[in-house]
Amino acid sequence: MVTRINIGPVHPSTHGVLRLVADIDGDTVVNLEPHIGFLHRGVEKLVETRMYMQNPPYMEKLDYVAPMSYDEAYVATVEKAMGVEVKERAQWVRTILLELQRIASHLLWLGTMANDVGQFFTVFMWTFTDRDRILRLLEEASGARMFYVNMRIGGLIRDLPPGFDERAREVLSYIEKKMKKYEDFLEKDPLFTERMKGVGVLSRERAIALGVTGPVLRASGINYDVRKDNPYYVYDKLGFQTQVRSDGDCFARYKVRMLEMTESIRLVRAALDKIPEGDALGMPVKLILPSAKNRMVTLSRELPRGECLMYMVADSQRPYRLSIRSPTFINLAALKEMSRGCKTADIFAISGSLDLIMGDVDR
Amino acid sequence: MVPILSLASSYLNLTGTAATIVDTLVYAIAVSVLIIAFDYIFGWLERKTIAKIQRRHGPTYAGKYGLLQNMADFVKLLAKEHVAPKRADKLLFLSTIPTMLALTIFLVFLIPLAPTLIETNVGLGLLVVFVLLSFMPLIIFANGFGSGNKFAAISAQRSVVMLLSYEVPLIFVIAAVGALGGSYSLAGLVGAQNPWWFVVLMPIGFVVFFIAMLAEVERPPFDIREADNELIAGWLTDVSAPYYTLALFLDYSRMLLGSLLIAILFFGGWSGPLLPPFVWLLLKAFVISFFIMIIRATMVRMRIDRLLRFGWALLLPLSLINLILTYLVFIR
After folding, report:
1. pLDDT tens-place values along chain B, 332 residues long
2. I need a surface site. Which of B126, B149, B181, B261 has the fewest CB within 10 A?
């Protein structure tokens, strides 16, 4: 007999306000429908009513786990529309901040993932404590703890503070040490690997057909990363390696993210080594009288959760239209297919491995 | 009987059956107080220990070291409105949790806490305890089914599957314990562990029993019934205010019961030097509970279909091997 259960929108494991309607036969999922829209704020429309540099705070609230990435993606779109070059040092600083943000975001994901398979908040608390050290670094660089708003046209609101280099290296080696501990703790636990391996398999073909991006795509064996295939800023100068796994299950997605964190740590170190001296300040907000050179702009960025595509029709003072291809919205579409035929408890392992942020899905 | 427990009957100048009834009542009240004290202390200790493992502080504000935090929680829960869902079967929904708590207290009452406290020592105590204990999942099934909530209904189904998966190995281990001790009375079993504890004599049996007890008292990694991130709270999803308080008490009472059983069957019960036997038993139960607490903080929850396979493909053969080895080595 098939039972229909309604999971969410308020449920401990849906990471926000995702509603899943699951048809369950015994303990096997027959069908699963995600219902979204509980956190819809109409950001794309709000953006049209404000001047260019009034928008970053709105963009950051799309993905409240990795706000800096969206901030940067939007500002870069405006820069592209206006035809402004980013200053040399600012490019390096942005790369460093983005990668630090990626580590912070993945650490949060690791904690919630462990929670979703039934860990009692232990890994969650550990990763939150570690994540806080990165947030403190970002706070030093930008002045805010959660919503940074530190990108300006052509650069940043301020340069890296003095002594940032040493502190960043210290935090990175700390995170690196902790990462090994987490890997030991989780992968040596047969219960954890069992909950992850072979669960929610997404084949290579279906991954392409569904249009998933980011770690979910790379876990299905496709070597695609915007940072490698369409490099921006200084990623091509840092010897960036794409992390790929071929299994396509939850464990592969877990592993890809873990490897990505290691890779990000390496990238930040390399960037800190090579960063040139100079000026990183962007244009003051009030002095901008934008004269958009390009009418239509698209820009793609590798966010921690996948590829974000910004499509902007520029106007003189404000965006005429901004459309965002948010990575998690597309990745969520794969949930239905991945969870068909799995056990009830696996729904949460799979949705956890997709790393959903409902603010990003609903926009 | 300890003199202090028969004070009431001697004060009332009772003899015979009347004295036995009064003594038993006094003992029952003493056991209940003991259980509540244990629940309270463990409720606090578990929060503190898990907080330490997770690099947090745990409760700090209410009382010294947050000792009054649980009291505050209980008062808050008791002050809240009790809501029974409209679709719930009221009788099943409201009667099951008090029944379970009463059953747990009764089971602790059946366990001899010291050689002098064996008035309630039944000749077939081991069997009685485990027969009654195996009713628990069925009562949970009734509650989950009666609450009219789909999450609770799934939890109820899981409850029965869990019962199927660990009960048979558990019975085999108990059979081995009874055969080794040459007795089915709990006090007799403690006596039989005089030079060597049973944990030394049959380590395989202990491992199986410990795992099965974890599942029996619903501690992680076998808290599949109330898996909080899958089923919200499982069979407790719709349970509110005073009944939830009872459910919290129930949780720790069952942990005490499980630890006491492990201590009595495998760690020599109240035997130990210097300290009085009663203290020894509680100390052992305390250490075992502490261990169970640490398991909670570190393990990942098992999936229900995996538990079934685990029970039948691993625990059952192990328990059979244990039974055969025990027979071959010690009894034959």
Report:
1. 456 666 777 777 777 777 778 777 888 888 888 888 888 888 888 889 889 888 888 888 888 888 888 888 888 888 888 888 888 888 888 888 888 888 888 888 888 877 666 555 577 778 888 888 888 888 888 888 888 888 888 888 888 888 888 888 988 888 888 888 888 888 888 878 877 888 888 888 899 999 988 888 888 788 877 777 777 787 888 888 888 888 888 888 888 888 988 988 888 877 777 777 788 888 888 899 888 888 888 888 888 888 888 889 998 999 999 888 888 887 77
2. B181
Q: How far A145 CA sits from the closest chain B CA (Å)?
A: 20
Q: Do B54 and A115 touch (CB under 8 A)?
A: no
- CATH number of the domain that residue A289 is part of: 1.10.645.10
Q: Is B227 on the interface with A (CB under 8 A)?
A: yes
Structure tokens of A161?
């503070």
- Domain count along chain A: 1
Q: Do residues B264 and B288 touch, judged by C-beta distance below 8 A? A: no
Indicate the pTM of the whole model. 0.86
A5 occurs within a structural domain: no
Q: Which chain A residue's Cα is nearest to B237?
A: A11
Range of the domain at A117: 42-362
Helix axes B241-266, B16-53, angle to 10 degrees: 100
Structural contact between residues A278 and A66, judged by C-beta atoms closer than 8 angstroms: no
Question: What amino acid occupies position A326?
Answer: S
Pick from A13, A125, A189: CB nearest B55 = A125
In whole angstroms, give the CA distance from residue B277 to residue B275.
6
